[in-house]
Amino acid sequence: MRIVIAEDDPLLREGLALLLRAEDLDVVATAGTPGEFLTAVDAHAPDVAIVDVRMPPTHTDEGIVAAVEARRRQPGLAVLVLSAYVEQAFATDLFSVGAVGLGYLLKERVGRVEEFLAALRRVADGGSVIDPEVVGQLLARHRRPDTALSELSPREREVLGLMAEGLGNTAIAERLFVTDGAVHKHIRSIFAKLQLPPDDRVDRRVTAVLRHLDGGRG
């Protein structure tokens, strides 16, 4: 797994590089600015990019913009975005162009090494990850009561949150102490209520989560 890290804080940038190299992962380049990051992507063709949301010069959304551009330049590049705070607009904007090989984690997750590495590998394998804290905070905000989202049962909302973490049916079943069949039934019901038919071009799980998060706008 070839990795490029884009993070303007030199301590965190080097700390991430040391952590990943200690796990025998190949960090091919590190960058402190969006420009350096895109140059590194062009030069090294990495498998995965780890990108900070807020980067110079304005420390707003430069990381998101750079991540989107990197995937345009290198289709199939997996991207794991790190953010210090829950930022709904950035999460939804990132996933709006597709969910394959994308992750959005809070920086505090890096300190939970096994969880962080599991998320990184899931994204590298083409999966999708949204930090459970992001999901939890966003789902707690007000939503429009007159949408299909209001039809979801409490259990379905719980399943949806675990789906957002990137968990498969078996892992969700173990977390909720139910059968795989019960989880499959809940997920089918979620997709039906949100009118998400099968489509090879999109990840219905992440699409369902984003519908849920986006329901908090307005």
TrEMBL record:
Q: Where is the Response regulatory domain?
A: 2-122
Q: Does the keyword Cytoplasm apply?
A: no
Q: Which Pfam families match?
A: GerE, Response_reg
Molecular function via GO: DNA binding
Chain ranges of the HTH luxR-type domain: 145-216
Give the GO terms filed under biological process for this record.
phosphorelay signal transduction system; regulation of DNA-templated transcription
Keyword vocabulary terms for this entry: DNA-binding, Phosphoprotein, Transcription, Transcription regulation
Keyword Phosphoprotein annotated: yes
Organism superkingdom: Bacteria
4-aspartylphosphate modification, residue list: D52
Q: What is this protein called?
A: Two component transcriptional regulator, LuxR family
* Organism of origin: Micromonospora matsumotoense
